[in-house]
Design a protein that fits this description.
Layout: E1 2-11, H1 16-27, E2 34-43, E3 50-58, H2 63-70, E4 75-78, E5 97-99, H3 103-114, E6 120-123, H4 128-141, H5 173-183, H6 200-216, E7 220-223, E8 227-233, E9 236-242, E10 245-248, E11 252-254, H7 261-269, E12 274-276, E13 279-288, H8 289-297, E14 314-317, E15 320-328, E16 332-335, E17 345-348, E18 357-366, H9 378-393, E19 400-404, H10 405-410, E20 429-431, H11 440-453, E21 466-471, E22 478-480, E23 494-496, H12 507-524
Parallel strand pairs: 5-6, 5-11, 6-7, 11-23, 19-20
Antiparallel strand pairs: 1-3, 1-4, 2-3, 8-9, 9-10, 12-22, 13-18, 13-21, 14-15, 15-18, 16-17, 19-21
Length: about 525
């Protein structure tokens, strides 16, 4: 074990060694013990921003006595946590199948392969380089491949994102996930950053290295393979149909992602129990990154030691929430459509986050009662309805409807003009009144939220803030019900997992859910 010393506040010009010395003095651990940055964040709430460190002290003699003597709530023991499993003894009759190669699927397959279960991964989209070409064609020419796009393909939706690794879950496995990502090529700083990110550019290398690790351990990763059907007999899975061909399968990990709408429909036909769940929809809001920096850092904006400023904002009105989501400093707004005739957008940035604009989703919570339909797929149809409205409003070809905030408030989209913020969207844009692309209650909440957000980030509700529509894929619109054994409540052998099954939200929580689901199989079965 080691000692963590939290809340070490240092000027942004200070050397990290000063933080280490401060931690040693606070703990009373002696100035010769080893130290490293365990966590680092920026506190910009006051006139002068400061770095806030949590420092890990190692090689401390009698750690418990040191912590007791310090008598400080910021000086605590950090126990060592090694992730290890023990294989079960039952023999598997068929190799497990992992459906989907996003974060949940990648980490599930890695664990299965590492413990000798030789998984077969099926991914409906293409391998990375082919997928990049398919996405580029959509962004430049408006030609969508419904099987290989921003939502489907190697790495999942996160491959075309900021690669954010922030999470609200407090699980020891998060540290394991970060370590595996670094092993596969992610920058080491994600191990200590308060808001870690990899960036689209570096995430691609990580994804390919993860796949290589799985195959070297005896797994297979098969692309352009869509799960068409499942065969259930006597309450248990017995086979799957992939690209029209069936084969025996008694363990299927469903890591399908939140946009696999046809798979949801197939599962419903096969009697798999699902329920609608809340999610959120809204717009992407763009500002100049320099304005965000100035709003957050004041006169220190542009300081070489400070990263591009970030924010996380929320406002609740009665039972409805408006909040920012997936903020991309120095990023780009991208077309994230996966169905013909429907438009969805998302945010993306590279590791350097050095683009001119900052963007984030400004979204409003929607509940099953808002869907206007019944059954588990009502949320899917709600998303689809508004995505089609946005597609039509911008004239098709996956052009995006845009509107300045000033025009949005005045409802004069057709007479709009750009200010200092120019659209970063990956395709063409068209001025529209976004009130026609979103429910009235969403528009009303966005208007109220923007005004309140500007109280914390002063530039937020400037008239030339640019909205791009629409953001609908914030999370899965349904949940595939599972029991404590992580199997579907309807069919033994089917393991709903990750964000698409309704049990995660983002790269980290999806990866952790994938690990825990794979662990269930490892603990049951002997290696092949």
């Amino acid at each position: 074990m080691s000692i963590l010393v939290r809340n070490i506040r240092m000027p942004i010009d200070a050397d990290v060694s000063d933080a280490f010395d401060s931690a040693r003095r606070t703990a009373g651990a002696g100035m010769s013990c080893a130290a490293r940055v365990y966590l680092k964040s920026v506190d910009a709430r006051h006139e002068a921003p400061v770095f806030v460190y949590t420092v890990e002290l190692d090689d401390v003699e009698n750690e418990n006595a040191v912590v007791k003597k310090a008598n400080n709530p910021d000086v605590v023991i950090r126990p060592r946590r090694d992730f290890a499993l023990q294989n079960g003894t039952s023999a598997m009759t068929d190799r497990p199948v992992v459906c989907g190669f996003g974060p949940a699927g990648m980490f599930a397959a890695l664990i299965l392969a590492r413990y000798g279960l030789r998984p077969i991964v099926i991914e409906r989209g293409g391998e990375l380089q082919k997928r990049i070409s398919d996405v580029d064609l959509m962004w430049k020419a408006g030609i969508l491949d419904s099987e290989s796009n921003v939502q489907f393909g190697e790495g999942g939706a996160g491959t075309f994102s900021d690669g954010k690794l922030t999470t609200r879950i407090n699980d020891p496995l998060c540290e394991f996930v970060l370590g595996e990502l670094v092993r596969c090529g992610a920058p080491e700083e994600i191990l200590s950053a308060a808001h870690p990110h990899i960036g689209t550019d570096r995430l691609r290398t990580v994804v390919c290295n993860m796949r290589r690790s799985i195959t070297e351990l005896g797994g297979e990763v098969l692309f352009n393979r869509r799960l068409d059907d499942v065969s259930i007999k006597n309450g248990a899975l017995e086979a799957v149909t992939v690209n029209g061909g069936s084969f025996a399968c008694r363990s299927l990990l469903l890591c399908i992602g939140h946009s696999a709408r046809d798979t949801y429909a197939m599962l419903m036909r096969r009697g798999i129990t699902m329920e609608p769940k809340p999610f959120s929809i809204g717009v992407r809001a763009e500002h100049l990154q320099a304005d965000i920096d100035k709003s957050m850092y004041g006169k220190y904006a542009g300081h070489a030691a400070l990263p591009p400023a970030e924010y996380r904002l929320s406002w609740r009105n009665a039972d409805r929430a408006c909040y920012t989501f997936c903020m991309c400093p120095g990023g780009t707004v991208v077309c994230a459509a996966s169905e013909e005739g429907g438009l969805a957008v998302n945010g993306m940035s590279c590791f350097a986050r050095d683009g001119i604009n900052a963007n984030s989703a400004v979204v409003v919570s929607v509940e099953p009662g808002d869907f206007g339909g019944a059954g588990p797929l009502a949320g899917v149809e709600f998303q689809r309805r508004w995505e089609r409205a946005a597609f039509a409003a911008a004239g098709g070809k996956y052009a995006a409807p845009v509107q300045t905030f000033g025009s949005f408030i005045d409802r004069i989209g057709g007479k709009d003009t750009l200010g200092s913020v120019r659209p970063s969207y990956t395709g063409e844009t068209r001025f529209c009144d976004l009130h026609g692309c979103l429910p009235d209650f969403v528009c009303s909440m966005i208007a109220g939220g923007m005004e309140r957000f500007s109280r914390k980030v002063s530039c937020f509700s400037k008239a030339d803030t640019l909205f791009t529509g629409i953001e609908t894929r914030t999370s899965a619109p349904l949940r595939i019900l599972r029991g404590e054994d992580r199997q579907s409540v309807s069919a033994a052998g089917i393991y709903p997992c990750g964000e698409g099954a309704g049990y995660a939200g983002g790269i980290m929580s999806a990866a952790v859910d994938g690990i825990k689901t794979a662990a269930r199989l490892v603990e049951l079965y002997a290696p092949f």
